[in-house]
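Bug report (template v2)

What were you trying to do?
Predict the complex of my protein with zinc ion.

What happened?
Run completed; filing so the output is reviewed.

Input:
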Amino acid sequence: MTINFCSNCGGPMEQRIPEADDHIRSVCKHCGFIHYLNPKTVVGTIPEYKDKILLCRRNIEPQKGKWTLPAGYLENGESVQDGAARETLEETLANVKIIEPYRMFNIVHVNQIYVMFRATLPSPEFGPTKESMDVRLFHEKDIPWENIAFKVIKETLRNYYCDKKKGIYPFKVGDIHRHS
Amino acid sequence: MTINFCSNCGGPMEQRIPEADDHIRSVCKHCGFIHYLNPKTVVGTIPEYKDKILLCRRNIEPQKGKWTLPAGYLENGESVQDGAARETLEETLANVKIIEPYRMFNIVHVNQIYVMFRATLPSPEFGPTKESMDVRLFHEKDIPWENIAFKVIKETLRNYYCDKKKGIYPFKVGDIHRHS
Ligand SMILES: [Zn+2]
Ligand SMILES: [Zn+2]
């Protein structure tokens, strides 16, 4: 994202280190307004129903047609738990109950932080939405590993099934690299 | 933060719900660019040295003169752990080693997410900086509870000493409300 004009006064921008700062920022030449760019948080869930989990098949780019866990950008005015539940509802029509935080991932090369929660589906009610062409419950043996949309989701699922065998789900922070 | 002008083309903005969205956004009337506003992540540490922890006394507003744990905004291009260690170095001159994530807090009314890590100080090397007029190691009995800068830091410290008595530090997500 390039900042060409000041969102405060519409003036031209320059790249420099502001006083009492140590990072290069976009600063307005006219009014001095500093435009900070910070990582965005993506929140999502692993919705559990009995011994299955809910996946959704993307109806939008990128990765249209691939399967994923419900997740999306945290919005102003909501908690991480509320955001994760909202994204799950928007993408699967399922009203989940958040259990606990499960994984955080740094995706430094795209300036994203993922926070994934374990969640329960009180009843098997869900369905396709504008964002998801298909929504289904999967047993571990049926997970479409070759058709998972994003590396961070594949890693979350791998971690989840590994922990499921042990019956404990400790919270951890991981990293997703561009090539790995 | 109000967006008066488009950062892409400098054109005038309007507040409306974009197509295929369900939130009101700042949208450019001229080029259609959508300006998203998302919560910012603050990362910090509880730096441990033997049975003490490191606090810094703020040299800048807000809450100048009050004590706090080292913490600040996560920057693009760094992991949450690296950001927490960087902020600790900037505010206390201490080079900590991150142990593990300890607390996440939603501060919904200011659109912030805090992520606080337990960390160790390999040696008692630290000192004042531009941001901290004083930096000191504290025993629990000496913590200046009446002079802690922010509610989120007081809550982190309370949680920490409660867990310390039990000798386990489970990761949890909490909420900080405006009045409580
Ligand atoms: Zn300006
Ligand atoms: Zn524009």
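What did the reviewer find?
The two ends of chain A are 25 Å apart (CA to CA). The first helix of chain A runs from residue 80 to 92.
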